[in-house]
């Protein structure tokens, strides 16, 4: 019997050396197999490291997203992507085709790798362009769309040049079909915003071509609608299709390498398809050491092994320590720049950002993205106010921008408060246009509650603390707030009890003059309704002040009257005593004079009765009689002298007393007149205050009242002058020769003379003429009487008007 054939045993083949890499080997077994191999230059070890590299790159590429892209990039740089750049390019392109929604993430990953390894970025771009050309030739719409989308985002990340995008659009729209136009529109949606920034003329030509295609109407309705939607997206500024998302904008423009590739490049060797498969490297260890040095330069670390988690943690710690040491060195070597070069550069940057922005949100985003230091926030706020003041008219853009910064950070609000105080203090230096713009800017911040209303405490409205510029600033600001908020809401905010301490300068209550000035100011700008509380306060304070002044004046008058009455009583008593003494002396003198006069009369009568011959005897007797009284008078001479001295003294005292009385009476009259003047002044003030508060807003019209008083006085003077001229004229007429000639007597004489000269007529005619003359005479008398009555009536009217004017003025 023949033995059954035995099964042939296959030769032992190394599973790792197969074309596909063999069966799956767990990572632990793979590491054990690597440890068993002692010769690291051998092909088996290189094969194992190749497989580990391929699995690591594929795994990291599939895990990448927006949130972990930074960590994934660090791990990819740990692998030898110089040796495995073919694996990396194929992994990224396959992952993008499998999930097109993550195209922006893969393009950002490619941009980061391209900034450090430009050869890897160029290889990925070449392969994507080659994939697009193949799919376009084979009419593979989905692959073509994915390739075009990837190229568009590489243009957005500035890995590819914009000429490549314009070539693709020209190729798609040269012979338009439904599919080609759809691919072109998809490409425009992704990179239209970037092409508008880099090549606006090229983008305009593309849209002009789309307009022509739309007018030809040779495509489906669906495609035509897509073109119309594309025009609407362009009109909206590609807001829904931004070129780069903020989370994926990770590479600076200065660090990026842009590759100038075209769609006509048929360099097949540049695709380097041989890098996708394993090849034995005779200088394997040397190339590994070189990559470690490159990795150390890139990541600033010294790692012993590649791909281990422990090494990555140690590298991150060493990187942080290196950064801290570098920061301390920079801090110790800080240089102070007094040329303000950095300040000028910051202001230029802020100005360009403001002028190049279409909306306030875009401007705020650009400025915040620049990551200014906190010490530069004041310059940002100052530049916003300066740009606003330089405009020809106020633009709401700046108010919204300032409000956005105030709401974002509290530091910006504090800087705007300080700038409000500085601008108000130096407001007289601004021109009218700048002043108006700044006032409207701060009014916008206040009415939108972006700025605290406590900044109004810097404003004090009085005649001494304000200028014409500051009053114009306050007027424009409050009128703008009233326009935005409404007078009712503004009044409610100004009456808020929590904010009332900050508004004491706006509505001063320390002095009635300042309060009246504030009321007049707000009334003149059309906002008198906000001063209702201040009007009530002024009314009450004026009444209290007038009562206090009146009480003080009355008390002073009472004291003066009591002192004057006491002095009057003393002067009256002294004057009465002096008058009594003078009366007594007068009585004595009159009695002595009467006795002497009677004696003289008796003697004279006796002398007249006696005859002449007895004259001598009588004279002798009289001489004897006269001698005897002379002797008596000589004895009483000292007594008479004393009486005369006393009488002169009493007379002088009486005259002095009468002078004192007269002087005190004059003083009393002066005091009485002064009292009457004070009382009239007080009553007039009280009446004026009452009239002011009785007519509401007439408080602020004192100047008009004064003008009306002056006009009334002028009219009164004119009337008095006209009356005087009228009377003078009448007097001149009354006593003029013409007037005398026209009098009735003269007229009658002249008439009789004429009649006497004329020849005699019949009696009837003479009677008629006399009757006519009498009638004419009566007419003249009536006219004269009527004129006198008219003058009397005019005098009465003038006197009545004067009385009424005096009553109204009082």
Automatic annotation (TrEMBL):
GO biological process: mRNA splicing, via spliceosome
Swiss-Prot/TrEMBL keywords: mRNA processing, mRNA splicing, Nucleus
Residues covered by the MI domain: 345-461
Annotated Polar residues bias: 624-635
The UniProt record lists the keyword Nucleus: yes
Pfam families reported for this sequence: MA3, MIF4G
Compositionally skewed regions (Low complexity) per UniProt: 301-314, 560-579
Residue spans crossing the bilayer: none
Residue numbers spanned by region Disordered: 1-21, 298-335, 558-810
Acidic residues: bias regions: 596-609
Subcellular location(s) of the protein: Nucleus speckle
Annotated Basic residues bias: 750-761, 781-796
Cited InterPro entries: ARM-type_fold, CWC22_splicing_factor, Initiation_fac_eIF4g_MI, MIF4G-like_typ-3
GO molecular function, one term: RNA binding
Keyword tRNA processing: no
Compositionally biased tracts (Basic and acidic residues): 1-18, 322-335, 637-729, 738-749
GO cellular component: catalytic step 2 spliceosome; nuclear speck
Family label: Belongs to the CWC22 family.
Protein name per Swiss-Prot or TrEMBL: Pre-mRNA-splicing factor CWC22 homolog
Native source species: Ciona savignyi
